[in-house]
Amino acid sequence: LASESWSVAVDSACGGLLDAFIVTCCKDLHVLRECASKVNFNNLRIIVYDFTRPRLIIPDGSLPTTEHPTVLSVIQSENHTVLNVLVDQGHAERQVLVKDYEVGKSLAFDDRMRNIKEVYTSDGDKISLGEKIAELKNEAEGIQRTIVEKNGQKSKLVKDQCDLEQKIADSKVKFLLMCNAFQLSCNLPCCFAEKTRT
Predict the structure, then answer these.
(1) What would the mean pLDDT of 42-50 be, rounded to a whole number?
(2) Residues 6 or more apart in contact with residue 85 via CB below 8 angstroms
(3) pLDDT at site 147
(4) How far, in Å, CA of 101 to CA of 123, rounded?
């Protein structure tokens, strides 16, 4: 590495690629697997790659538009095959390294930055757009749950209001019926008295 300060970040970014074996053909892959199984080492990552392939030339337009280093820029190796595998399998040229989370966050979520796959802090934390999307989805789901809950409360309030209006209407009808009944009962004796006078 160009600087030991990036060792944790590079390890996080490259993951299993740094532990992988690179072979030239499937025959070598089978031989290596056989050797590994004889010593009960079954979790072996083996990559078949063309060793004659020259070092990949990455056009400037395909590199991240930032001053921060990438995983590929801090790895020093004379072996073109190793560097090519890191590019082909791990996109090391698009994995950007930053000192801390705040710098990484502003870099990862800045729409003007192009060709950035992931951002890693010097202590190995990954900041990626996928994580931000997941965070926003969780937030949206929470808002949706609140909306459904509030709509349920609103529906209950509307129903309660309708029930109350119906009770008021029923009470008005009962009151009018009682008033009419009272008026009739008050008028009957008077009418009866008038009829008995004649």
Answers:
(1) 91
(2) 17, 20, 22, 47, 49
(3) 87
(4) 9
Do residues 106 and 114 lie in contact, with contact meaning Cβ atoms separated by under 8 Å?
no
Give the number of other Cβ atoms within 10 Å of residue 6's Cβ: 20
Q: Give residue-wise pLDDT tens across range 120-133.
A: 999 998 886 666 67
Confidence of residue 31 (pLDDT cuts 50, 70, 90): very high
3-state secondary structure the chain: CCCHHHHHHHHHHHHHHHHCEEECCHHHHHHHHHHHHHCCCCCCCEEECCCCCCCCCCCHHHCCCCCCCEHHHHCCCCCHHHHHHHHHHHCHHHEEEECCHHHHHHHHCCCCCCCCCEEEECCCCEECHHHHHHHHHHHHHHHHHHHHHHHHHHHHHHHHHHHHHHHHHHHHHHHHHHHHHHHHHHHHHHHHHHHHHC
Name the amino acid, one letter, at 46.
I
> pTM of the entire structure?
0.61
Q: Which residue has the tokens 């309030």?
A: 157
Under 8 Å between Cβ of 20 and 45: yes
For residue 79 the two structure tokens come to: 């072996």
**Distance separating the N- and C-terminal Cα atoms of the chain:** 126
The CA-based angle 28-34-46, given to 5 degrees, is 50
User: Which residue type does 74 have?
Assistant: V
